[in-house]
Write the structure tokens for this entry.
Amino acid sequence: MPINSHVSRRSFLALAGALPFALKASAAAAGKVPVGIELYTVRDELSKDLVGTVRAVGKMGYEVVEFYSPYYSWTTEKAKEVRKLLDDLGVKCRSTHNDSTTLTAENLPKAIELNQIIGSQYIIMASAGKTTGIDSWKAVADRLNAAAEKLKPAGMATGYHNHQTEWKPIEGQRPMDVIATGTSKDVVLQLDVGTCVEVGDDPVAWIKAHPGRIKSIHCKDWAPGKGYGVLFGEGTSPWPKIFEAAESVGGVEYYLIEQEEGPATEQLQRAEKCLANYKKLRS
């Protein structure tokens, strides 16, 4: 098909090169970012019946799951069984949560092997371990950088998941700022919204301040008087603004709903209600 004579070859190629990015932005704007679940939400059910629980959240409509630290005790055979389960369900595992010791030089190889088997790209540090001052947070950043370098050849990456502590200044500096500025752009800043909102910080401003590094977000809500007992979408978090910032600036690749408080016997029901709220909010 001939190119319109009014469009130069250079302009045509530039437009063609921009097309995939435009399509990606359009998909994000249309709410096409996959929604998943941090499996800590259904931890009691998961500990009793991993297969049944993963199958249940898959049938609910969750497209992604994030396993947390107990996965590290799996054998490679167990990981292969889990991968088959995920493939059968059409569910992806994009990341795992890990304690700080998993990212040490001696433990990281096992984490890499297990994550590769289940298809996970991101090995996220979900706990910094014991910290005693700002220098210890700088050491956390150093560990993340070291892990990032080891993961890069495998096409993988590491990241950090915040809680409340990281937003509170120590010696005049917020640990989250130390981690963000002290790590390479390859290190993901996985935003836990609820904890950010609880301490009075602004999740939207944080996303905009770190373009391209917010690859995933824990969609955990919070409300005064109810804390984390509220379901997703029923707290005070500004979700529409968060989604807009995440998809236009943050570089988000998937969302993970997390709801961590309530009766153990109602974990699956709450997970289903959270997803229904999410779909309603995104419609």
Remarks:
- DSSP finds eleven helices and eight strands in the chain.
- Residues 1-30 have pLDDT under 50 and may be disordered.
